[in-house]
Design brief:
Blueprint: E1 5-9, H1 13-24, E2 28-33, E3 44-47, H2 49-57, H3 62-68, E4 76-81, E5 86-91, H4 92-99, E6 104-107, H5 108-117, E7 124-126, E8 130-134, E9 141-144, E10 150-151, E11 154-157, H6 164-169, E12 176-189, E13 197-202, E14 206-212, E15 217-225, H7 235-243, H8 250-258, E16 266-273, E17 281-282, E18 285-287, H9 290-293, H10 302-316, H11 343-373, H12 378-390, H13 393-398, H14 401-404
Parallel strand pairs: 1-2, 1-11, 2-7, 4-13, 11-18
Antiparallel strand pairs: 3-6, 4-5, 8-9, 9-10, 12-15, 12-16, 13-14, 14-15, 17-18
Length: 411
Amino acid sequence: MPKRRAVVVGAGIGGLTAAHALHRRGWHVTVCERAPELPATGAGIGLAPNALRALDAIGVDAARAARAAGSAIPATMGVRRSDGRWLTRVATADMAARYGTAPIAVPRPAFTAALAAALPPGAVRFGTAVTAVDDAAGRPTVRTAAGPDLPADLVVAADGIRSPLRRAYFPAHPGLHYIGETAWRTLVDAPDLGISDMSETWGRGERFGVTPLADGRFYLYATAVVPAGTRSADPRAELLERFGTWHDPIPALLDRVRRLDPAGVLQNDLHDLAAPLPTLHHGRIVWLGDAAHAMAPNLGQGGCQAIEDAAVLAHLLPAGEIADSTNSAEGAEGAEGADGADLIPAALAAYTAARRDRTDAVRVRARRVGRLGALRNPVAVAARDLAVLATPAPLALRGMDDLFNGFRLPA
């Protein structure tokens, strides 16, 4: 039985999740990734209840995959001051009771490797840079630097925060907005520290995050308000200088960072999309993840929203198997229903309707939360901390309902 063909541009979490979801729907899937391989080092990702629910919807046993990837469920989550005082704190057991599951923290490289391994052999083509997508004839053709061209019924643009396909098809869009902070991320081994809390500590224009993983490692991240492009000769030394006097266990963790190769500490300036895209699709090309709605990491929802995107997209598209190939002029085509209706563009329009407003609301909210964490004025910082401290933890948790309960598959 012939199959519809999808080409996914980018092998990040969004692209690989979309590829998995489409493969499960019976599509023939090819993933083009410009890098020679998946990254073996890097950072972590938190899979919030909404992302876990989306993964379940596409048949991914997220809990099993996360355990295999070295995940952990922290005992508590919260925000602290630089002196160590908790401003707000919630038990993950309470989150599980409210949302049906607790969030999971997982090393990003291991999770992407697990997603890639679930695809058929050869589905992911590394070292394959996409140079353009030509959809002038109605059905897209993906041009690659090394060739050959790839005809497709659908192109999924998951090509990241600086998406070349977004720039090509939305040339009037303002693009990215620098939110005023740079971020450092790394993974360190520290099984002897016995830390089970996931925390983010707020200072004055600086933040430090600690996420325990199941294998004794920790995902660490830090941010600081600096001009765009600011870099130090040694990121390890800069982290120690900025955060070395903060509360325990930050100094002990930074001692482990000091022993890393400098290349093991990633630094990126933080950007989000300056404005929402007018639409998330064009013809048979569809955008998801950072390519569609790049957002600041302050809510931990960038990857989670990409996973939601993938689940909704696969749900709305027709199945990959073409029952009646006579409806198609070529074997690689076949997007027409028995009544002659063009199913794929209609499904992509429904995807835009289902995802654009939700993802943009999360993008705006993440930017606002980041502004609170980035405050530097001492009076403003004191007022912020007092307001967070005065908010009961159950009330703060209820404030996440729209995020963690917001994933729905369209009817």
